[in-house]
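The authors assume throughout that readers already know how a fold can be written as discrete tokens. Each protein is reduced to its one-letter sequence and a matching series of backbone shape codes. I therefore recommend that a typical entry be quoted early in the introduction. For illustration, here is how one protein appears when written out as sequence plus structure tokens:
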Amino acid sequence: MMKKYFSFLTSADIVTLTFLLFLSLIEIVFYHRIDHWYILLIRNTASILFIYNIAKYVDRRKTNVVPIIRSARDWYLVPAILFIYTQTSSIAHSLHGKDYDGLLIAIDRALFGVDPTVWVYQFTHPIITEILQLAYSSYYLFFIALFFEFYRRSDRSEFYSGAMMIVYGFYLSYIGYMLVPAVGPRFTLHDFFSYDTELPGLFLTPLLRDIINSGGGIVAGVTNPIEFVHRDAFPSGHTQLTLTAMHLAFTKRSMHRRWLLVVGSLLIIATVYLRYHYLIDVIAGVCFFFFTVWSGKRLDRWWNERVKNL
């Protein structure tokens, strides 16, 4: 019975559908705290129906599928990650009614005796800032480059298993956002409106920051950005998923592996240097990475060997 209704789904489909159902349950239970919860619930339901039915349609038609539909079936995960990120990080504060930046700051001070983003300021320079801002902003390019390569290989099993690992990692980080909502040191330990004067770059830094701010929920020109920004500091998803991408690049012999190693390492440094994360966020991101790889491989194997092949 299970094989009849679910065998055409990949492990990435399953973790995405499961997380959408989990989010919907959260929104139903805490509806009194979440604005427009019913709209989110409708969107989640529509997303679930789309994923299930397009996967079923492509499986039934086999090779006789219009290329654009095949591409939509395989690549819907990209907008799904962004859609779910926006939803989870934006409702995190509503679930608790407060942020936990004070706790994260206290942990950093207890572990290191300083505020790492304040301490690192002595080493800042416009050239370093420009390089690190470029590296930080290349985050999503890692996954597009990596999975486009896997998709073009004759055996797409690496594309599907790798996609499962990445989306699973994203969803784990989103759970962290909901459990420990925080805005990050650029709002708490530093003056957000002095960001560009204290950490100037060279050419592209202001534009890249505006793009990142917009993606993080900050409306241009607002006087109270902390009320709009998504709560996505803990754990550092940039650290967790960059390490996951690097792991996949080396284990699957990607031609991008050396580029990912260099730029990915700079990105992780940038998370603290650019004041997006506390150092404890980065440490948590490393821990989340190890758990993602350890449990993700087992979930993928269980689905493909035990469920799909029943």
Q: What stands out?
A: The two ends are 9 Å apart (CA to CA).
